[in-house]
Design brief:
818 residues, alpha+beta, Calcium-transporting ATPase, cytoplasmic transduction domain A, Rossmann fold, Calcium-transporting ATPase, cytoplasmic domain N, eight-stranded antiparallel sheet, 16% strand, disordered N terminus, transmembrane helix, translocase, Haloacid dehalogenase, ATPase_P-typ_cyto_dom_N, HAD_sf
């Protein structure tokens, strides 16, 4: 701490001495200093643990260890997916964390306190309980306090309350950290610091980490959980079956054939796990996050991309979202019947101060065509304590400008009609000021007082500056069937007027309500909200209750905000969206941060989420087909005691060319269809016909081909021939499923299917690829057997796809009816 000597600002004289050095040290020793440790996001350890310790990783890792134990590392290639999948999740969240941490760094401001009779300049962290703190215009309060002396102090408490209008503060009034002084000055006594402050307590609940709900991940996890119950016993049975096919356990262990038996068992297990779907989900979420980051939109949790696709209710905070906090001049209402040009000239003259406030600056900008007069004899600058300003002109007239209720209060006569006009304009959402004239008089700069013969000359209307992109953005949401509501701490009439200007409800008039009249019961509140577009005078706890009520009504809710008062509601919402200039605690609980605070980014955010989810549902069927046919083939192998008809490396090759890689391209296609819950049911309905057909064809080949061809499956060469034929048939069936998913094929999708079909065939003729993936091209009778298998597969696939979907749909409808 240091005593400011050079360029020390001027402070009013006060008799209070403040804390002594010993008293300050005692508070420091007691820990009553203004420091707090706010985590802006998850820690590195939490991020790594969340991405590594998953059910999917556990299953794949266990299967990989089994294969590696056999020494056949080529068949363990599938384990690389764990590294890629985990790496994508960790890297994306770390990038979001770094960006958020940078956003959360506040400007380290110094403050003046009065200690031992001197003005002492101290950093934010060295303020202690009991300090006498000077609060000047422009300062953000660093701690909670109570006012000792006030010289016209006005505070902007919108970050805490949502109320955009400034609040006048007097002696003994409490003031809270996070508020900003807009005018005046005060000496306050610090009452709470650090974690004990009001803002810290308000955000304490919001600091608890909440994982974003993902319908897609829930569906995948449901599959994985089901596979867990199936995989373990089936793996044991597969190992037992494969041991028997090579002569039993003793012979298998003695000859080393147990290694092949374990690898064959893992082939069945790995095929049942949709590892590519998990990888593609993470990859597409990550790509969506990267694309949004290029548009200054930070996605902090990958799963929130999915939530974007499901949103049907969007709660908007007025200040910072619809408006940018600035003031604009609207109009001059002539009350005197005189020359409006003369009134505009007088208004510009009285507003043209050396340092005009926000209202004065807005008037000067709005009337930029009017040049201020140089014929000014005297001036009384605006004061928030007086709430008026004045100028005296060379022609002898004086003009007074300020709050209507203040200017009218000094008059002898009652201007009832003017008061009615003021009230009517205020109800329309305008900030109303008055210009009054004293025909002959002078304003006293040294002892400013209002004369008693002022005559109202004009009413001046100003309003909050609406973002240029607000109306267009809201129109997009209406077209996409997303219901938008404006929720604010401001006067309902003011908010409703702004909502009407941006056409929140199109051509209809927005329905507004005072939040103080809302029911406390969640179900009753849900019914009320269906009939309300605008809510004013909303408290922080009510914002949270509003989100809960919308959830009760079956809605997927997104919430925007920038203040500490929004943090609880953002955390409660399915998707919290914070502005880049928001409070650190608010950004910490949001899933999405609009870094440049532009509301117009939201359509891109929602559209990107819809693209990812609609396409992921399309390609998820590909992966689940593999799960279905792998489970059925494994079951058939166990029941009939035959060698497994393909190797893990075969399924890796086939899966890459018919599922994983093409699915990546299909998932990037444009798609704005709104996502609807029920992902798993729709995907299962698609996967069962294709999976059943594929499993049946492969099993038929494995059961009957050895007898027809005269193969002895205990001979490696004959077993290799069978596995090659089955792998080729499996590949062809995979291409048929891919063609079904990619429809319509009269576009680039048809080319995509043809390219991957050709890639699979060409790969078999490349020696390195054929050797690595154990592909042996069939010749002679084997080639004819392969061709017969392809024809049978085409017929069975056609019958299955044509009949089973109708049967499944009928069963689902009957189940829903019950």
């Amino acid at each position: 701490m240091s005593v400011e000597q050079d360029n020390e600002p001027t402070f009013p004289r006060v008799d209070l001495l403040g804390l002594t050095t010993e008293e300050v040290q005692a508070q420091v020793d007691a820990g009553a200093v203004n420091t707090s440790h706010e985590a802006t996001s998850r820690t590195l350890g939490q991020i790594i643990r969340a991405n590594v310790c998953t059910l999917f990783n556990g299953l794949i890792f266990a299967a990989m260890l089994l294969v590696l134990a056999t020494g056949q590392w080529k068949d363990a290639v599938f384990g690389v997916i764990i590294i890629i999948n985990t790496g994508i999740g960790v890297a994306t969240e770390l990038k979001a964390k770094r960006t958020l941490d940078k956003l959360s760094i506040l400007v380290a401001s110094d403050y003046y306190v009065r200690r031992a009779g001197q003005q002492v300049r101290v950093p934010h962290d060295e303020i202690v309980v009991g300090d006498l703190l000077w609060v000047r215009s422009g300062d953000q309060l660093p701690a909670d306090a109570k006012i000792v002396h006030s010289w016209g102090l006005e505070l902007d408490e919108s970050m805490l309350t949502g109320e955009s209008k400034t609040v006048r503060k007097g002696e003994d009034d409490p003031v809270y950290s996070g508020s900003t002084a807009t005018s005046g000055m005060a000496l306050v006594r610090v009452s709470a610091v650090g974690a004990s402050s009001y803002a810290s307590k308000l955000t304490a609940q919001a600091k608890v980490y909440k994982k974003t709900h993902s319908d897609l991940n829930d569906g995948i996890n449901t599959i994985l959980k089901a596979m867990t119950f199936v995989v373990v016993p089936l793996c044991i049975l597969l190992v037992w079956t494969q041991m028997r096919t090579v002569g039993g356990f003793q012979e298998a262990i003695a000859t080393g054939a147990w290694r092949g038996a374990v690898v064959s068992a893992v082939a069945g297990v790995v095929g049942m796990i949709p590892e590519g779907l998990v990888l593609l989900t993470s990859l597409n979420f990550a790509l969506a996050a990267i694309r949004l980051a290029r548009q200054n939109t930070l996605v902090q949790e990958l799963e929130s991309v999915e939530t974007l696709a499901r949103v049907d209710a969007l709660n908007l905070d007025k200040t910072g979202t619809i408006t940018d906090g600035g003031i604009v001049y609207n109009s001059l209402v002539n009350l005197s019947g005189g020359d409006s040009g003369q009134l505009e000239q007088a208004l510009v003259n009285v507003s043209h101060e050396e340092n005009p406030n926000a209202t004065g600056a807005a008037i000067l900008k709005g009337l930029a065509q009017v040049q201020p007069s140089t014929q000014i004899r005297a001036r009384v600058p605006f004061s928030s304590a007086r709430k008026w300003s004045a100028v005296a002109q060379e022609d002898g007239s004086s003009w007074y400008f300020g709050a209507p209720e203040v200017l009218l209060s000094a008059q002898k006569q009652h201007f009832e009609d003017v008061e009615q006009q003021v009230s009517a304009l205020a109800d329309q959402g305008y900030r109303v000021l008055m210009l009054a004239q004293e025909a002959q008089g002078d304003c006293d700069e040294q002892n400013p007082t209002l004369p008693s013969d002022l005559k109202p000359a004009a009413l001046i209307t100003c309003s909050e500056h609406i973002r240029d992109d607000a109306e267009q953005t809201l129109a997009w949401f209406r077209e996409q069937s997303v219901r938008c509501r404006i929720i604010s701490g401001d006067n309902p009439a003011t908010v409703a007027a702004i909502a009407a200007q941006v056409h929140l409800t199109g051509q209809d008039k927005p329905r507004a309500m005072d939040a103080r009249k809302l029911p406390s019961d969640i179900n009753a509140l849900a019914e009320v909200l269906e009939e309300v577009d605008v809510l004013g005078r909303v408290l922080p706890d009510q914002k949270k209750a509003i989100v809960q009520a919308l959830h009760a009504g079956g809605h997927t809710v997104a919430m925007t905000g920038d203040g500490v008062n929004d943090s609880l509601a953002l955390k409660e919402a399915d998707l919290g969206i914070a502005m880049g200039n928001a409070a650190p605690a608010t950004k910490a609980v949001a899933q999405v941060v609009l870094v440049d605070s532009k509301f117009s980014h939201l359509p891109d955010v929602v559209a990107r989420g819809r693209q990812v989810m609609a396409n992921m549902e399309r390609v998820a069927g590909l992966f689940l087909v593999k799960t279905v046919y792998s489970a059925l083939i494994s079951l058939g192998v166990v029941l009939t005691g035959i060698p497994f008809p393909y190797l893990p490396r075969h399924i890796t090759y086939i899966g890459a060319l018919t599922i994983g890689t093409p699915a990546f391209f299909l998932a990037l296609a444009p798609n704005t269809r709104r996502y609807k819950p029920g992902f798993l049911k729709r995907v299962v309905a698609f996967a069962i016909p294709g999976g059943l057909a594929t499993a049946l064809v492969v099993l038929l080949m494995a059961w009957f081909l050895p007898g027809i061809m005269g193969w002895n499956l205990r001979l490696p060469a004959d077993l290799s021939q069978l596995r090659t034929v089955c792998a080729i048939v499996l590949f062809a069936m995979g291409i048929l499923v891919l063609a079904r998913v990619a429809r319509p094929l009269k576009s680039w999708r048809g080319v995509l299917v043809a390219v991957f079909a050709a890639a699979g065939i060409i790969g078999a003729f490349i020696p390195f690829v054929a050797h690595f993936f154990a592909i042996v091209l069939p010749t002679g009778r084997s080639a004819w057997a392969t061709l017969a298998g392809l024809v049978i597969g085409l017929v069975i696939m056609g019958l299955s796809v044509g009949f089973l979907p109708q049967l499944i749909d009928k069963v689902q409808r009957n189940h829903s009816a019950r």
